[in-house]
Amino acid sequence: MENSQLLQIAKDFGSPVYVYDADKIVSQYNRLTAAFSNVKSLKINYAVKALSNVSVLKLMKKLGSGIDTVSIQEVQLGLKAGFKPEQIIYTPNGVSLEEIETAAKLGVQINIDNLSILEQFGTKHPKTPVCIRINPHVMAGGNTNISVGHIDSKFGISIHQIPHILRIVENTKMNINGIHMHTGSDILDIDVFLYASEILFDTAKHFKNLDFIDFGSGFKVPYKDGDIETNIEELGEKLSKRFNEFCKNYGKKLTLAFEPGKFLVSQAGQFLVKVNAVKQTTSTVFAQVDSGFNHLIRPMLYGAQHEIRNISNPDGRERFYSVVGYICETDTFANNRRIKEINEDDILAFSNAGAYCYSMSSNYNSRYRPAEVLVYNGDAHLIRKRETFEDIIKNQIEIKIE
C-alpha cells in the first residue's frame, strides 16, 4: 500500500484506523503452502485470535484455509464467515467442560490440553474425535509472555505425562485422531522447532488412529528492513522430508497441520494515527498521537518494536522523537526513534499492525475503538465502523440513585 493510498484512507475514514492489505495476506499464505509443497496433505488453520474480523476470515476461507479457534465465540465467528465445522479446530485453555461440549456439538475438531478434562470428555463422549495438545518442554518465543511450550507453561499436557494419557485413552476407549503442539511466537531458530517436532513424532507413535499432526506455528516475521525472520523455506524442506518419513513408518498418510496467525496477517496491517501535538521537554521531543495502548498494546505488553513512518512527510529530514499516546498512564510506542520530521496533523503509520493489535484493543479511558479497512483488489473497504458513544453505553444499565 502506497503512502498516497494510506493518506487517502486516513482522510476518508478518519484516524486512528487499522488498514489491512489483502494482497500481502494472499502472498504470505501462498509462501507458506509453497514451502510445504512436498507434503501431499497440508492443512493451514488460520489463528483467528490474531485478527478476527469476519471479512478477513472470509478471505482466508477463499484461500483454502481452515481456522484455529480458542473460544466458542471464535468458533461462532468462523461458522458465520462460512467455514464448515470440519474446517475448524478448537484449542481452548482453561475453559469449562461445558464449553468444550458445546463446541463438540457444533461438529468442530476438539483439541484438549488437560488430563482431567480429557478423562471427563472421553468418558462422556468416547466416539467424538479428539486431538491432544502436548507440551514439549521446549523454550521458544521472543518474549516470556508468548513462549508457551516450556516446562512452567499452563498450556498442553506434559510429555512426561504420556503414560497418564495412554491410561485415559485405554480406559475410555476414546478416539484420538490428532496430536498437537505450539512452542511459542517469534521462533528464530528452526532447529529448535525441528527438535520439538521430533518430540511430537515420538509422541504420535503411541496413537494408532491419527489423521493429522499439528505443529502449531509461531513463525517470526520481520518488523523492519533487514530484520531476522523464520526461514520458512528451509523449515519446509527439512520438516516435509521428516514428516514424509514418519508417515511411511507409521503406515498411513497423515495431514501436516499448522495454525499461523502473525505470519499471515502481521505485515499486512498498517495502523494510522494523527499527530495531535509535538511537545518539547528539557530532554525529549514527544510526538503525541490520537491513540494509545487502548488501541495498540503490544509495545507496552511485549516490548514490540513497530516501525513508525511519517507518511505525511516521507522526504523530510530525520529527527529523534518519542511517540506517545493520550492515555492517562505511560503509553509509549517508541523512545527516541529516528523518524522523518513530524508536525502537528501529520499521519504516522505503524507497520506490522495486522496481528494482535485490533483484537487486543479496548475501551480504556472510555475511548472508542478505531475503524478497520481492508484493501481488496486495490479498493479500500470499510470492514468495521469506528465506535460511537452509543457503543460505549449500550450494555450499561442505569439504576435509580437517590
Model description:
Strands 1, 11, 12, 13, 14, 15, 16, 17 and 18 form a 9-stranded mixed beta sheet that branches. An 8-stranded parallel β-barrel has the order 2-3-4-5-6-8-9-10, surrounded by 5 helices. Helix 2 packs across helix 9 (232-250), helix 6 packs parallel to helix 7 and helix 8 packs parallel to helix 9 (232-250). It has helices spanning 3-13, 22-35, 54-63, 72-80, 97-105, 115-124, 162-172, 190-204, 232-250, 262-265, 298-302, 389-393; strands spanning 17-21, 42-47, 66-69, 88-90, 109-112, 130-135, 157-158, 176-180, 212-214, 255-258, 269-280, 285-289, 308-310, 318-324, 332-340, 347-350, 371-376, 379-384. The protein starts with a helix and ends in a 9-residue tail after the last helix. With 402 residues, the chain is an alpha/beta fold. It folds into 2 domains: 22-262, TIM Barrel; 269-387, Lyase, Ornithine Decarboxylase, Chain A, domain 1 (Beta Barrel). 30% of the residues lie in helices and 23% in strands. Specifically catalyzes the decarboxylation of meso-diaminopimelate (meso-DAP) to L-lysine. Keywords: Amino-acid biosynthesis, Decarboxylase, Lyase, Lysine biosynthesis, Pyridoxal phosphate. It comes from Mesoflavibacter zeaxanthinifaciens subsp. sabulilitoris. The active site is at residue 328. GO terms for molecular function: diaminopimelate decarboxylase activity; pyridoxal phosphate binding.
